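@channel sequence for tomorrow's demo:
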Amino acid sequence: MGKSEIRVLVLGDGKTHAEKVGKTSIIKAFSTDTPISDIPSSQIPSVSPPVVFRPENCLGDNSVTIVDTYCKEYLDRRDMPSEGNIEEELTRADIVMLMYDISRPETMDRLAFFWLPLITQHTKVPVAIVGNKVDLKQTTGNGTDQYEELMRPLLRDFKQCEVFIECSAKTLLNLHEVYYHIQRVVLYPTEPLYDYDSRELTPKFGKALTLIFRLADRDKDFLLSDRELADVHSVVYNIQLNSSDIDRIKEVLRQQCEEGVTEAGINLHGFYHLLKMTIQRIKINVCWNMLKHFGFNDELELSVDYEVEKKPGQTVELSRQAIEFLVDIFNQYSHQGVLTYDDLREIFATVFSPPWAPNRRDEQAWLNIDKHVETTAEAGLTIQSWLALWHLLTMLDYKNSLKYLVYIGYNLPLDSALQVTRSRDKDILGMVRRKVYCGFVIGYPGVGKVTSS
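structure tokens (generated this afternoon):
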């Protein structure tokens, strides 16, 4: 999402074969917005120099550089010097536009047998498969269904293939769509959000959506009401949904995920499915724009960077606002005044590791909570233990504590979550304001230090 330049490498059969696919022609048509049939052949070079499009002509705040390749003898002689040039360009590209000639099936065959193995051997960037000369379909009799059937195995066997589109440099048909999609794939990548093999959202995207759902669920009833759903669209996309729009969304969702919609609203499972449907309809930019609005970066992480200025003898504690937030969380998730282990895991469903062991992801790390605070006989937490846990975390590492506060839904300004106590040497007997004290238990091994604490 944050690229300043998108580098597009154009590959495909060249002048060694009779089946020229039109790489240079399509770049010329891109750069002039003129049908290639209207451009004199003398103005079309064998290889186009790199063409740069300025940000004002691009999808985002980035430029686009399109790099042509000269494939003479490359397909027949893998030891030719030109091989090194192509492979070097592959390492620099953000996306590969792999072209074939719709009127010549041989060029399509070489996508699977030559070009895609070469590309995937040297780079992991996405690939856009572009069929040129779609204007010849009527004369050759090759229909859309036939070519979609031929493309399906490529999309299945080569996961880097994210776009399949047909166009014509001669008539400009779909040329603007090609230019749009090669940018979209780079600016809004699918892989971090969606697994094509399982056809499910990635775990990291799922956790991000869990937090977004919580922030949108203002009344904390574990459902997105019509009003809350409309507010998300208004704030994130500047789109005003009316009741008919929301009814249509819920009806489409109900048809595919009946358990995700109730009379009162859309639950978390339905919210997941709604975003999955959005990706499957090739509207992944909708997902990235939502992530960006809620502060997630390209790695689907939140930036929680806050430094507290404190002097020797001062400590950092939770503020009143943070404590009130934690009490609300406890009341929302607890049962009969206790947070069970399952309740605790649900609270922290937005992260992979517990805050008391941020570098571990194993189940035992979560179970070790009893080594940090007192638990009930069933390994649950009372409100006192819940707050004591956060006081301890903040005393030990306030930055880590603040990060986890944000990840479980604290959305007030960062500086409102913490406060700095005055120095210990300024405390006056009977007027101590700090809430947390640090003490040490000292003694010989076996005298009961752990038991007494």
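heads up for whoever presents: Residues 73-84 have pLDDT under 50 and may be disordered.
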